[in-house]
Each structure stands twice: as structure tokens, then as C-alpha cells.
Amino acid sequence: MRVAVYHNNADIRIEERAVPAIGAGEALVRIRASGICGSDVMEWYRVPKAPIVLGHEVAGDVVAVGEGVTQWAEGDRVVVSHHVPCDECRYCRNGDHTACHTLHTTNFDPGGFCEYVRVPALQTAKGMLRLPDDVTYEQGSFVEPLGCVVRAQVRAGVREGSTVLVVGSGISGLLHIRLALALGAGRVLATDVSPYRLDWARRSGAHAAFDALEAGDSLPDLVREANDGDLADLVLLCTGAPSAIDQSLACLDSGATYVFFAPPPPGAPYPMPIADLWRREVTVRTAYGAAPIDLAHALELIADGSVRVDDLVTHRLPLDRIAEGFALVADASESVKVVVEP
Length: 342
Description:
Quinone Oxidoreductase, Chain A, domain 1, Rossmann fold, 14 helices, alpha/beta, 342 residues, 31% helix, 2 domains
């Protein structure tokens, strides 16, 4: 089979490898759609692990199952989770599934940017979801990224009628806009530095979208103007740019919640006005990844039309053009979602 081996954003090589052999409890899945995630092009995160086959936003067909597998059969259309929790440790019992050690050590083999993946027994049992007949593979590839967004907003507690500010309108930010509206937010505002992405924020339903560079220190005033004089109840940081922190923290209302959804590079300073946040009882939290329960919720939202995703795909590329896809995602000026079709 063909695989795309990542060395860095400018060096991705197509190689031939044997189709993985599966064992008892495992499944072999033919990949039909695999999305390129923004985290795939974070070189500080990916290059130390290279050479590696990336890709974790996948949907495809079961082509074989190992001994003992009864819930799946050849021909089943599925979404496969690359990470699954144990559901038994204290983190899982507390609902903190993405803190589970097992979740951080599981993956499918070799990665989603190839033709076939071996799904280990734990993922086969707990981490595969059946695609409804009317959900395409391409839509299925959004289950993982939307699942991460679902986890962040559900845990942050989006309230009906609340005002949400999404900072950064890349693919994650756009999904946050759409989910917040689906969950009943009364007003959703967005920022970015790219006119292209700001246009997409408006197309995704944002009531107002602000150029963060033009706004500068005036962003809180713009938020108030768009929100009947009030600041935001929930701020979702969807960019790793340190400059966005001070700007967006100033947009928090008293009693509001701030979510770090995107990570900065290691060592990047994140100044926090702790005394001010303390006095105004602001909640600061992080959101990492998704568990199968979040993926199931995301699939329901896609299947019932609550969150539209198909219009977000701007580029569809075969595996042998994956380097072009990585360049598009890394540049981020003329693409929203790039999907690889191995």
C-alpha cells in the first residue's frame, strides 16, 4: 500500500509498505477520507517524532476483522478514533477521559495518510463509530475535529442566549462558531487576521467578525458595540498566537469562562492578569482532544444537520498530492479544510 511519510512540512514522501496484518480483536480499515489537521503542520510538535505517518481524522470501510470481532464486518462504513481511554481509571471515572494514560498511548497503525490502517483491539471495541448511510466519508472525516470542539464547549458550558467570542477563525474556530449556534448561543462573535477567514466566519454564522490587527486594544469596545454593551460570556482561543491572549482576555465579562483550545509553541509566554481574573471570578480552563463519547455526539450533530461541515472542504487531494495539501494548511490563507482521499 502507499503511505505518506512526514519528515517536515516541506518534506513528505510517498512510500510503499505492506498492508498491516491484523490479529485477534483487530480490524483492517480502507481509508476513504482523511483530513489534514492544523496540528499536523505544527512542526515543533511533529518534527521531533518524524519520520512518521500522520493523519487522525479518518473515515473508511472495514475490509477485514480478526478473530473474536463480532460487532464489525467487512463492508461496514466507519469513523475510527486514533485515541481511546480505558474507561476505568480515576480520570475516566471523573469524566476527564482525555487525561487518561491509555488514551495518550493508543493509536492506529500506521496513521491516516495511507490506504489501510490496522485498528488495535481496544479501538476496534471502543473507538469505531458506524457511519449512517446518508453521511459521506468526507463528512465522517470531520467527526474527530468536531468532537474536540464538542468536548470544549460542553465542558465550558455554553448557555442558551450567551455571547461567545471565537478567537481565530481557522477550521477549529469555524466549527466552534457553528457548534455554539447549534447549542443555543444568542450571539457569536469572531476574530482573525485574515480577510479570507473572517469571510468564512461570517459565512459560518458569526454575527460579527473583527480583524484582530485592526482592532488592537479596541477589541473589547467592538465586542461591547456588537453585544448590547456587554463583554463575552465565553471566549474560545483557537490560535496559538501569544499576541491574541491579552487582547482576548480583555473581552471577558465578569463570571465568564476562557478556554485555551489551541496550544502555543513550548516556552511561549502567556501573561495572565491573575488579580483581575480573580476579582471578577473568571474561569480559565483548557480543552484537549476528544473521547469516543464526544465523537459520538459530533457524529449525531453532523448526521442530523445541526452542524454543517461539507461546505468547509475547499480542497480534495489524492494521496500523491498530500505535500500540496500540507502547504495549503500551513499557509492557511487560501484553504479552510483539506481532505486527502487515499
